[in-house]
Amino acid sequence: MLKSYLTQPPYQKFIIIQDTLTENGKPIFDYLLQHNLERFDNKIHYYLVQGNEKHCPQNPKITVHNLKINSQNWDTDNRINITQIAEGLQKRDIIFVDSLAHCIFQYGLAETYRLFNMLKNEIGVAQIVALLHLDLLDSKWKTVELFNFLSTLSMKVQPKFSSEHGRIQYQCKKSGGRVVKQIEEYYFQNGKLETKKIEKLDPKKLLENASRPEINPDDLATFKISLTDKEEESRSQLVLPYLPKDENSSTEGGQIFYKFDEQDDWDEEDPDDDLDI
Q1: In which pathway does it act (predicted)?
Q2: Nearest to 46 by CA among 124, 58, 143
Q3: Spatial distance between the Cα atoms of 3 and 23, rounded to a whole number of angstroms
Q4: pTM of the model
Q5: Phi, psi for 63 (deg, rounded to 5)
Q6: 127, 121, 102, 122: which is closest to 112 by C-alpha?
Q7: DSSP helix/strand/coil, 253
Q8: What is the DSSP string of 153-191?
């Protein structure tokens, strides 16, 4: 389902990939960039706000805009203002932003939001794909909520859970007003992004497959219960007395008989029955 939202028409207008340092969304970002290069002839504008320009993809269809140049405004003459970013963009153009958090740091939250609202609604570019690093944002500013409202497809990369594949939690706004919220597994196969629904686990099967923990009797008692190999061997060699029978029978040599006295206290119950083994 998620893959169809990403690669099949109607194409999403504004895609946000939320990630963290541990759950990296850059592979999905790069896959969407490669998909656009292979499938469409649209011009792609790559806005670099973090990282090294050497790592940007080299392709005639891609125009790289290095917004890191003079990002601290040391040289006011070469300062790239926010309005210059939108200059020359056409409706069929596709925009990739790496990353949205750094763009907010550089231009401010209000100006950045105004820019992307203009790109989406006023200029009406074909598509916007942006990385949003969650661990760089302050939750009190409600940045995620603001851009989720503006986006048409918002994805959050999540860690693996009981599977070898990672997870993506996404929210997709359809043209009719319907909102789809889902969590799916994702992986890459031969360089292609694959997604699949997470099957609901059956509680009965989980209980059946759960292995019962082995109980060690020594852990339940205040004294030693088990025997060592040497103690086992000594016990097997011990000759116990035979109790006499009422019937007369011939005896064999080497047998030891014990005759009860009146003072003997004989308890037929096994004292080990009280132990939880």
Answers
A1: tRNA modification; 5-methoxycarbonylmethyl-2-thiouridine-tRNA biosynthesis
A2: 58
A3: 19
A4: 0.71
A5: -110, 115
A6: 102
A7: coil
A8: EEEEEE---SSSSEEEEEEEE-TTS-EEEEEEEEEEETT
What is the tens place of the pLDDT at every residue in 61-110?
A: 999 998 877 655 555 555 567 778 888 888 899 999 999 999 999 899 99
The whole-angstrom separation of Cα 130 and Cα 139 is 19
Residue whose tokens read 């686990």:
201
**Residue 122 in this model has a pLDDT that exceeds 80:** yes
Q: Could you tell me the end-to-end alpha-carbon distance of the chain, in angstroms, rounded to an integer?
A: 52
For 200, the token pair is 């609901």
Length of the chain measured in residues: 277
Surface-to-core class of residue 67, CB atoms within 10 Å of its CB (0-12 exposed, 13-18 middle, 19+ buried): buried
3-state secondary structure of 129: strand
The SS3 of residue 62 is strand
Domains and CATH numbers, the chain: 2-200 (3.40.50.300)
100-107 vs 109-117: helix crossing angle, rounded to 10: 120
Q: Is 127 helix (H, G, I), strand (E, B) or coil?
A: strand
In order, the DSSP letters of 11-61 are: PPSEEEEEE-SSS--HHHHHHHHHHHHHH----EEEEE-SS-GGGS---TT
In this structure, what token pair is assigned to residue 30?
A: 């790069």
Question: Taking a C-beta distance cutoff of 8 angstroms, is the pair 64, 36 a contact?
Answer: no
Exposed / middle / buried, residue 11 (Cβ in 10 Å: 0-12, 13-18, 19+):
middle
Residues 245-271 have pLDDT tens digits of: 555 556 566 666 666 666 556 566 666
Integer Cα distance of 67 and 166 in angstroms: 32
The letter for the amino acid at 225 is I
